[in-house]
Amino acid sequence: MAYDIDMIKKVYAQMAERVGKAREVVGKPLTLSEKILYSHLWDVEADKAYGRGKDYVNFSPDRIACQDATAQMALLQFMQAGKKKVEVPTTVHCDHLIQAKQGAKKDLKRANETSNEVFDFLGSVSNKYGIGFWKPGAGIIHQVVLENYAFPGGMMIGTDSHTVNAGGLGMVAVGVGGADAVDVMAGMPWELKFPKLIGVKLTGKLNGWTAAKDVILKVAGILTVKGGTGAIIEYFGEGAKSMSCTGKGTICNMGAEVGATTSTFGYDDSMERFLRATDRNDVADAANEVREHLTGDDEVYANPELYFDEVIEINLTELRPHLNGPFTPDLATPISEMKEKAKENDWPINVDWGLIGSCTNSSYEDLTRAASIAQQALDKNLKPKSDFGINPGSEQIRYTADRDGLLKIFEDLDATVFTNACGPCIGQWDRSDRKGEEKNTIVHSFNRNFSKRADGNPNTHAFVGSPEMVAAIAISGRLDFDPTRDKLINEDGEEVMLDEPKGIELPTNGFEVEDAGYVAPMEDGSGVEIKVAEDSERLELLTPFEPWDGENLLGAKLLIKAHGKCTTDHISMAGPWLRYRGHLDNISNNCLIGAVNAFNMKTNFVKSQLTGEYGGVPDTQREYKEKKIPTVVIGDHNYGEGSSREHAAMEPRHLGVKVVIVKSFARIHETNLKKQGMLGLTFDNESDYDLIQEDDTFNFIDLKDFAEGKPLTVEIVHSDGTKDVIKTNHTYNSNQIDWYKEGSALNLIKKLNA
Ligand code: SF4
User: Where does the source fall among the domains of life (predicted)?
Assistant: First the structure.
């Protein structure tokens, strides 16, 4: 699978010096997170202590991973960068586009038919540009990364929010938008606000029914869905060392659910065991040589409140199993309190499905713990009351679990084993038992349980728990079943109890796989032809955006003045539009359709200054585009908050919007606009937002003098001929102004590479 041992050795060779230098400039002992961050600075040497939560810093990640839904636009953009190969080791994983319905074999066949075009495209681009390609069925991106590429002390980015899973193997691994990934693939730095640090001290030892999953379910209850925003969560203490590597992965995985930038653990014996079990003795040996740099300094963990911005302590011995939900992953309920809580809130008690899998909980250990419960159902003559669904995390896990008889245990209980892929976790689930929108309950071992996420039904109450708890609840069929004290009646009418789960951390006979599903790229891929059908609905090769003509922008018309919240979902909706993520023109038909028009408080209903008629935003904008009339979008506070998807900047750019003026931007979206060659401005005086009228024309009268730190003047001409002249600000530095001049950051990269 070609992990890059030379690259890993290089990272380790530099670590002592870089960590030492960082300790000097920071002037105190370092956390693990700081060691990784400072040893991955783009400018190589730390010359100052960065302000946590304040300074934007350029980093140099070691690896990139992309999943199939986000990789399409990322690779389409990379193809414009004029590079022969990616500059940083990269992999693409086909896991999101496979629907769970009838079981692995049939589902995979169907996915290969319906998304063949996309998989072929991703495969051939990977082959051409030196990217490792994991075929549909090979597994879920984050399990595959953990089993093959993650390494202690490394830094990676991935175009998926659960990239953070690799923290289980001691990485700083962060989910980013495609545009960020493309920069790094093309050899540019990756910018991140230096994170704050939250320390979680784990004491005691997990026991009985309590699993690693319960640690993060508890942390989510404490921090809530926003509590980790802008921070790295670093776990330490004896309790951390006592847990398996994949258990640590589960905890880091769900750090995304508290908004954390990422989570991580220091290198320990469990990680060494995992590296050796996954055939990476050389990585374990190399890590052992720099062990002291792969964990926080002793003084930090002895007095964590002096070094972290916030400290949480959890005693694993006392921790009890939890179920979190419904509708939000931070609503934490100890299983012992579920009876009252469910009654109080009128949550449906009968459980329809127990789903085990996702990148969060599909390790070998997870399957063995869940199977030890399932086996008891067979032994004690219990018939499961709920349906069972299993998604193994990778083909390696599936093959090994099958060899070791684990899957047979579930199959003997009539479970459906779905493809090694995301499936129900991302709504790729053709659920047959409920077609209407009745209130119902499911339990799963995934990470997210937002309304409609698994099956599209807003009345499905989804609860998140450990795989063994999901197994127990699925057998009982009841949400309020507490296996630590409740009895079940078996098919013979006898009362029985389930014994505590038993797990096997790593397969006794080692991992095994016949075909892991990996395709290595050609050494020289220059001859590989990328084929995209002219009439394809799902893929479209990108045309470079036009460079700036160097003139002032005059006569721009208002497209929409957005009222209130305007997130990336309002600008570029997800759901059914996922299908068009690789086709810029088709997905542009969702451009700003969720934004509320400030003049009539309706969505997707704006006035055309060409006809005086009202219509949808994309259609109206396409008319302006056809007539080559530039347009402006006006927004409120925190415009573009939400995901980092670059489509929210590319779509308006593609349709001919030239400028976005807002009260304030969400930073990532502002950067995305800059990267795509758009002008993103903020009102100097916020109340100028109120001056904007429906028929306004905008003249940017000093754009010719566009320069770093210099505000721009905008003349607003109203339909009655009156004018307002306002000042707007921007945050473009000279390099970003070059992006604007060239039409996009990619155009500039291409020019520099020519
Ligand atoms: Fe995302 Fe779920 Fe797939 Fe994990 S399993 S990568 S959370 S969709």
Answer: Bacteria
Q: Give per-residue pLDDT as tens, 450-473.
A: 888 898 899 999 999 999 999 999
Q: How far is the CA of 422 from the centre of ligand 1 (A)?
A: 5
In a domain, 492, yes or no: no
Cα of 359 to ligand 1 centre, how many Å?
Answer: 6
Between CA 168 and CA 249 the distance in angstroms is 4
Pocket test for ligand 1, best of 92, 94, 95 (most atoms within 8 A of CB): 95
Report the candidate in 367, 394, 381, 389 with the shortest Cα–Cα distance to residue 468: 367
d(C-alpha 696, C-alpha 521), whole Å:
53
If one residue of 99, 425, 444, 450 were mutated to test the ligand 1 pocket, choosing by the most ligand atoms within 8 A of its CB, it would be 425
CB of 34 within 6 A of ligand 1: the answer is no
Tokens of 21: 């230098």
Expressed in percent and rounded to 5, the helix, strand and coil fractions of the chain are: 35, 20, 45
622 lines ligand 1 (CB under 6 A): no
444 phi/psi in degrees, rounded to 5: -150, 165
ipTM of the complex: 0.99
Cα end-to-end span (Å), the chain: 32
Segments forming the whole domain that contains residue 625: 553-753
On the question of a cis peptide bond just before residue 326, with omega within 30 degrees of 0, the verdict is: yes
Backbone angles phi, psi at 247, to 5 degrees: -65, -40
d(CA 446, CA 457): 17
Check whether residue 136 and residue 278 sit in a common domain: yes
CA–CA separation, 337 vs 323, rounded Å? 10
Q: How far is the CA of 165 from the centre of ligand 1 (A)?
A: 10
Instruction: Name which of 550, 587, 602 is nearest 742 in CA terms.
Output: 550
205 in a structural domain: yes
Interior angle at CA 260, CA 317 and CA 185, nearest 5: 125
What are the structure tokens assigned to 472, written together?
A: 């127990």
Residues with catalytic function: 95-96, 160, 448, 643, 645
Nearby residues of 523 by Cβ (< 8 Å), 6 or more positions away: none
Single-letter amino acid, residue 11: V
CATH code assigned at 592: 3.20.19.10
Which pLDDT does position 1 carry in this prediction? Answer: 60
Q: Is residue 87 a part of any domain in this protein?
A: yes
Domain boundary among 485, 506, 524: 485
DSSP state of 120: H
3-state secondary structure of 17: helix
Q: Could you tell me which residues are beta bridge partners of residue 350? A: 478
Using alpha carbons, select from 303, 312, 315 the residue that is nearest to residue 31. Answer: 303
d(CA 84, CA 70): 21
Q: Of all protein residues, whose CA lies closest to atom 8 belonging to ligand 1?
A: 426
* Nearest-angstrom CA–CA distance, 295 and 234: 10
- Pocket test of ligand 1: the residue of 70, 391, 447, 464 to mutate, having most ligand atoms within 8 Å of its CB, is 447
Radius of gyration of the chain (CA): 26
Check the CA dihedral 125-127-131-134 and report its sign.
Answer: positive
Taking only the tens place, the pLDDT of each residue in 489-539 is: 999 999 999 999 999 999 999 999 999 999 999 999 999 999 899 999 999
Q: Is ligand 1 within 6 A of the CB of residue 422?
A: yes
pLDDT tens-digit map of 141-176:
999 999 999 999 999 999 999 999 999 999 999 999
* Residue 68 CA, ligand 1 centroid: distance in Å: 11
Tokens of 107: 């589902």
CATH number of the domain enclosing 234: 3.30.499.10
Pick the more confident residue, 118 or 645.
Answer: 118
